[in-house]
């Protein structure tokens, strides 16, 4: 099972459980028009969902709503950032991203942020903040993955990794183990292929 934020592909994997969980993260939106038939979302079965009414919806539904055009070329809804992306949290990421517990904010923090970029109007600033946060955290993640000793600071930092960072940390730990096995010759001895031996005899 991979993390929600794919390291190899731009698009999520339809059959990946982590991608599914990431797209289930709810966001608050308010509609700019009345929506017929959705009144049940505000305890009004059979009626419309009224304009400016705020509702929580999973990301995958919100993405579907972005495909609905309006006659005046406006947006059918306005998106309110989730709490984990409010001004206070983003300011903490800007100040010192290595001290922020991303897992506590959202286990799929980067994936949720990536999803927001598809629907948010000011996506450029959010993109820059996430990029800089990841760039500053990744050296520490790789550094800790090479260390056997677990200090208090290391344990606290690792608890705050989101799912994609945990995947990278696991890869780092596995690379150390592979290197140790190679140094200790636990992978076996290299042998010359029989075909090469035959060619030497001919020469």
From TrEMBL:
Q: Which GO terms describe its biological process?
A: mitotic DNA replication initiation
The DNA replication complex GINS protein PSF3 N-terminal domain covers which part of the protein?
Answer: 15-65
Tell me the function of this protein: The GINS complex plays an essential role in the initiation of DNA replication.
Domain named GINS subunit is located at 88-183
Q: What is this protein called?
A: DNA replication complex GINS protein PSF3
Q: How does it assemble?
A: Component of the GINS complex.
> Is this entry keyworded Nucleus?
yes
Question: Which family does this protein fall into?
Answer: Belongs to the GINS3/PSF3 family.
Q: Where in the cell is it found?
A: Nucleus
Could you list this entry's UniProt keywords, alphabetically sorted: DNA replication, Nucleus
CDD domains, A to Z: GINS_A_psf3, GINS_B_Psf3
UniProt keyword annotation of Nucleus present: yes
Please give the InterPro entries that the UniProt record associates with this protein.
GINS_A (IPR021151), GINS_bundle-like_dom_sf (IPR036224), GINS_Psf3 (IPR010492), GINS_Psf3_sf (IPR038437), PSF3_N (IPR055221)
Q: What is its main location?
A: nucleus
Q: Output the SUPFAM superfamilies linked to this UniProt entry.
A: GINS helical bundle-like, PriA/YqbF domain
One GO cellular component assignment for this chain's record is: GINS complex
């Amino acid at each position: 099972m991979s993390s929600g934020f794919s390291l190899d592909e731009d698009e999520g994997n339809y059959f990946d459980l982590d991608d599914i969980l990431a797209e289930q993260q709810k966001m608050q939106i308010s509609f700019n028009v009345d929506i017929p038939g959705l009144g049940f979302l505000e305890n009004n079965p059979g009626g419309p969902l009224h304009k400016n009414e705020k509702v929580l919806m999973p990301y995958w539904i919100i993405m579907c709503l972005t495909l609905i055009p309006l006659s005046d070329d406006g947006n059918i809804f306005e998106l309110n950032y989730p709490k984990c992306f409010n001004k206070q949290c983003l300011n903490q990421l800007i100040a010192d991203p290595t001290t922020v517990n991303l897992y506590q904010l959202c286990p799929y923090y980067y994936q949720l942020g990536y999803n927001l970029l598809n629907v948010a109007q000011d996506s450029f600033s959010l993109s820059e903040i996430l990029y800089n946060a990841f760039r500053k955290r990744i050296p520490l993640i790789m550094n800790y993955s090479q260390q056997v000793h677990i200090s208090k600071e290391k344990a606290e930092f690792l608890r705050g990794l989101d799912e994609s960072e945990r995947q990278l940390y696991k890869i780092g730990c596995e690379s150390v183990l592979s290197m140790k096995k190679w140094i200790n010759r636990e992978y076996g001895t290299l042998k010359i292929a029989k075909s090469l031996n035959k060619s030497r005899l001919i020469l």
